[in-house]
Specification:
With 280 residues, this protein is of the alpha+beta class. It is 27% helix and 27% strand. The radius of gyration is 24 Å and the shape is elongated.
């Protein structure tokens, strides 16, 4: 990659920022067509991975042993292409190979996750291949990195988020609707440890509201709770197994007694004192 200063932003610059060596990257441009990805929704949906993992053998533009990271783009107008997602290649599944097809063990990758549907590059015509190894793609110009779209708030009863998602909800401008909603109510919430199945029931009351209470979890992973703090002391990464949801919400005018009674009720119903992570 040319590291000289030019003022222009290229795909190679993004490789460098993400810690990717060009030789570890395969860049693929998809086009919409009747016998493949027919709509943009197809390209953005779960059908993309099975479509990409199946590759022809004859006249393939992929090298015999393709690189580890596959960056997928969708052709838009002219030579522009918008980033869809990244997959990590764990090699060919030889048992599935046929005379004309080979299949790869592709798995979702977090590479460029923040740039999904935001990054637009200009595809080079030297050559016009729909697939290029990273060393041939480094010079592709970045023509747009658009603002991320807001994430709509679907309602308190629809919340079911991981710890990583919680951190995004608390800090990312895309979740403004969520932040406003969580700031407006008191509530009873439950944290599920998806590794052990144990539950923790908690409350967010008074001026703290749900936004304030959950901000503490996003900051330190335990919110000051004894059982969760012990888990964090044993393994700081254990918080990655936490899943957050809401059991009941209350208006700001609801009394402390109402919130306390609801918290105690859910602890009894879910047996979180006997089998979960509530110690009181």
């Amino acid at each position: 990659m040319d590291n000289s200063i030019s003022g222009d932003l290229s795909l190679g610059n993004l490789f460098h920022a993400a810690g990717l060596a060009p030789e570890d990257v395969q860049v693929i441009r998809h086009t919409l067509k009747p016998d493949g990805l027919r709509t943009r929704a197809d390209a953005m949906g779960p059908g993309l991975l099975p479509y990409v993992r199946e590759q022809g053998i004859r006249n393939s533009k992929l090298p015999p042993t393709p690189p580890r990271i596959w960056l997928n783009f969708l052709a838009t107008t002219g030579r522009r292409a918008r980033f869809l997602t990244a997959y990590e290649n764990h090699g060919e599944v030889v048992a599935e190979r046929s005379d004309i097809r080979r299949y790869f063990d592709l798995r979702p990758s977090p590479v460029f996750a923040a740039l999904v549907d935001r990054l637009v590059i200009e595809w080079t015509n030297d050559p016009v291949n729909w697939a290029k190894t990273g060393d041939l793609a480094t010079g592709m110009a970045v023509v747009e990195i658009s603002d991320p779209a807001d994430v709509a708030f679907l309602g308190f009863d629809a919340i079911l988020i991981s710890y990583d998602e919680l951190q995004a909800v608390m800090s990312d401008d895309r979740y403004r609707q969520w932040q406003t909603a969580l700031r407006s109510v008191q509530g009873i919430y439950v944290i599920a440890d998806t590794l052990t199945g144990k539950l923790y029931v908690g409350k967010a009351d008074g001026a703290e509201r749900l936004l304030g209470r959950w901000s503490e979890y996003a900051r330190n992973g335990h919110g000051g709770n004894v059982a969760l703090r012990e888990l964090a002391a044993a393994d700081a990464r254990h918080r990655q197994y936490f899943q957050f949801s809401i059991l009941q919400v209350f208006s700001p005018s609801a009394s402390a007694a109402q919130v306390d009674a609801a918290e105690a009720h859910f602890k009894r119903v879910l047996l979180t004192r006997q089998f979960g992570m509530n110690l009181n």
